[in-house]
Amino acid sequence: xxxxxxxxxxxxxxxxxxxxxxxxxxxxxxxxxxxxxxxxxxxxxxxxxxxxxxxxxxxxxxxxxxxxxxxxxxxxxxxxxxxxxxxxxxxxxxxxxxxxxxxxxxxxxxxxxxxxxxxxxxxxxxxxxxxxxxxxxxxxxxxxxxxxxxxxxxxxxxxxxxxxxxxxxxxxxxxxxxxxxxxxxxxxxxxxxxxxxxxxxxxxxxxxxxxxxxxxxxxxxxxxxxxxxxxxxxxxxxxxxxxxxxxxxxxxxxxxxxxxxxxxxxxxxxxxxxxxxxxxxxxxxxxxxxxxxxxxxxxxxxxxxxxxxxxxxxxxxxxxxxxxxxxxxxxxxxxxxxxxxxxxxxxxxxxxxxxxxxxxxxxxxxxxxxxxxxxxxxxxxxxxxxxxxxxxxxxxxxxxxxxxxxxxxxxxxxxxxxxxx
Length: 421
Ligand SMILES: Cc1cc2nc3c(=O)[nH]c(=O)nc-3n(C[C@H](O)[C@H](O)[C@H](O)COP(=O)(O)OP(=O)(O)OC[C@H]3O[C@@H](n4cnc5c(N)ncnc54)[C@H](O)[C@@H]3O)c2cc1C
What we know:
421 residues, alpha/beta, FAD/NAD(P)-binding domain, 9-stranded mixed beta sheet, 12 helices
């Protein structure tokens, strides 16, 4: 039985937005490049405040990370909150931590307010310790979260086994602020809400150039152009250039099984929490609403890579969930993460009245939605004070191409070895 090389989320959606390429010239208050969570959240919130907004999307809505991710709605970043404050300094670090801790609430309330049909489940997430070092890491994270009054607890091995359905973990950090959703449907729901608020989204309309003439931004596509007072650039890892010095592109691959039988389903994540582990080459697993088990890890498909990642995924399931030996994979897909050198998201200046949002480093559902909303406030008021991070001058990072190759080859080797050792 062949595995369909396509994102599960694309086949599992009944939602769509009318395809509308730009074929003329027009003028608006705000133009946004990129229709993922960042761009769509910015568009929705700016239009709600009365701005005329146009979104340009090179492909279709959710083509980027927003239509391919795991669907874990996390509070905060990979980087633990103490580290964030160390990197940014006390005041800026506290501001970002505080904003991101509330990001899941923003996501789930947008879903509720706009009746977005994306299977939201706010049952918490589990960060699972694979060994003693991982458990120590979780204890340190717990102390940092407890100091910030976050509703986070450390489950012991037995409690983790009961929630996960696997005896492979020494414990897990249980974060009640977090949850899961169907990622593409969340993006499409944001797009629908934005259109209802008056936004026009042009799909298959790649922004080929953008420049400020002293009065306006002029953005050109193959068959049209837009002038606007303000510009928000929100293409994250999917920006057009193949070589990018703003961040390192990190690939992430996922495999989804066919729906498990009700008996199997009862033994794997019976409460539906989303999970990831403490391994250096990290992996994630979750269930979808049809009872599919979705397992993911760093890496990309294509070429010989699949020969390493597919056996790895089978082996991972065999190790974690030996009780479901009878299953098959139905879908596999990959996507790209924009990882900055310090793993913190950035807002950089593009000149007069233009900003770029990027670098969520694998945590974009909450942060992208939040940064988009804050960018809308900036577009309306010009006030930078409510942005979660300060606007900085663009600064290239070193060796991004080499690091991308290193991560991809390292993950392939790690997965290949894990099947042979
Ligand atoms: C496999 C994977 C798993 C992940 N898992 C999680 C997770 O579980 N939880 C989580 O919080 N985050 C996760 N992330 C990260 C998250 O998906 C991203 O951070 C988030 O989707 C970024 O949203 P965005 O709107 O900034 O960018 P994107 O969703 O990538 O959207 C950018 C859009 O810009 C468009 N574009 C590019 N160039 C142009 C142009 N010139 N003109 C017009 N349009 C253009 C692209 O086509 C794309 O649609 C994951 C990412 C991946 C890839």
